[in-house]
Amino acid sequence: MAFKDEFGNLGQRFDEFAARLEERTRSRPGKGAGSGGLDLRSILGTLRDLFTRDVTREGLRNLVKRDPRDILRFYTHEIDFESLRPLPWYKRYPGMAWKVFVATAYRLSPARRIAFAVAILAFFIGGIQLLFLSIQIKNQGTGAGWWLLTIVILALLLLMELRDKLDLKVDLEIAREIQFGLVPSQPFKRDATAIHGFMRPANTVGGDYFDIIVLNDRQVGVVVGDVAGKGMPAALLMALLQGSLRTLITAGFRGPDLIAKLNEYLCASLPSNSLVTLFYGELNTASGEFRYVNAGHNAPFLVRPGAFDRLHSTSPALGIRILKESQFEARDACLGAGERLLLYTDGIADAFNEADEEYGEERLEGFLRDHMGLKEKELIGSLMDSVLRFCGDVRQADDMTLLLIERG
Questions:
Q1: What CATH number is associated with residue 307?
Q2: Cβ-count burial of 295 within 10 angstroms (0-12 exposed, 13-18 middle, 19+ buried)?
Q3: What does the alpha-carbon distance between residue 280 and residue 287 come to, in Å, rounded to a whole number?
Q4: Contact in structure between 216 and 244 (CB atoms under 8 Å)
Q5: pTM score
């Protein structure tokens, strides 16, 4: 709140400054609004909006602490620096620089690689000329021209890469809207049952999936899935999973037959190295009877008064082509009055902090024990706050999804 107040005061100061400056400008002969010049208030208002709108403390902190670390990891995560450690320093550091150069160049298009190499070459030529100047070798330049060429080429490359990124960002934002349109946006309530869901992709889009599907006037289907991978490829597979599952449910498939048929569909469509973990359950909202198939997914927590049960895996993950229908089994459970079932993806349990410690299922269970009195929406919000506080400034590599079922 203090941070917002700070920017509110800044905006007020901008307005006051603009008013004073515009008044002085208009008082000068030939100046002001009648001269056809720019509207100073509008300019300052635009500047205020440009540099204060949507600015948050977290965003500025990430810019300073997390983003540089992520950039370094992005360009160097495939480089084996350990193999260079035994070398003497005069070989180790040039070797590191060469590997970083190659890794960076390969992320550019072929034509841009050439421009990048020319910029680096011009930088070194300028450095050599400056070295000659420092040891007073005559007829050598200062290197400024070569360095200017380096700056121009790198600036052009930056603008081209930025243009590509902005174009892609627009597409990703549209894809994000579409993806969030595929999952329920409102809680489900019927009889004494309430179901709340939450999804937080690691990137703009992700491979997690949850759904609440009305089967009939007594039963509702609940689904939580996790497609291996992240980003746009995982999001496309997630959309395929959602469409296939709903199509099969409309065709009348239920329980293990549904999951077996879904696996058959996915095996025909997914790349050979793709896997999907899925938890599918059918809940009778009146009686609390619950029949489920857990296909390699994280075991949900069934929270009872004074006890915690887990709904462990009943079947292998989806996407394995050698599986038979008989390998998909269903089990039964029951949600009594006041009991809860928490479904989640591994992005919750596998969330890690700067010390590379995982949040873990033990910490998750402890949180549930300590916060059993919270309402459904409050519990989900508090749990996400707990996970994000644990992670600190470390950017997470996996999507996070929660689905909470409660019978009153």
A1: 3.60.40.10
A2: buried
A3: 18
A4: no
A5: 0.72
Tell me the CA distances in angstroms from 146 to 46, 82, 129, 290, one per residue in order.
Answer: 37, 34, 9, 72
Which residues are registered as beta bridge partners of 47?
A: none
- 2 confidence band (pLDDT: 50, 70, 90): very low
What confidence tens digit (pLDDT) does each residue in 145-175 have? Answer: 889 999 999 999 999 999 998 888 888 888 8
Which among 157, 181, 205 is the end of a domain?
A: 181
Radius of gyration of the chain (CA): 29
What ranges make up the beta strands (E) of 285-388?
289-295, 301-304, 307-310, 331-334, 340-344
Going by pLDDT thresholds of 50, 70 and 90, the confidence category of residue 8 is very low
Instruction: Specify burial of residue 80 (Cβ count, 10 A radius: 0-12, 13-18, 19+).
Output: exposed
- The answer to whether 269 touches 304, Cβ cutoff 8 Å, is no
Residue where one domain finishes, among candidates 131, 166, 181? 181
Give the dihedral sign, CA 81/87/89/90: negative
CB 379 within 8 A of CB 371: yes
Whole-number Cα distances in Å, 363 to 102, 357, 403: 42, 11, 18
Q: CA-CA distance, 58 to 62, in Å (whole number)? A: 6
318 and 213 belong to one structural domain = yes
Q: How far is CA 141 from CA 131, 147, 152, 215, 362, in A?
A: 10, 11, 19, 79, 66
CA distance 137 to 156: 33
In a domain, residue 217? The reply is yes
Task: Name the residue among 127, 71, 125, 126 with its Cα closest to residue 103.
Answer: 71
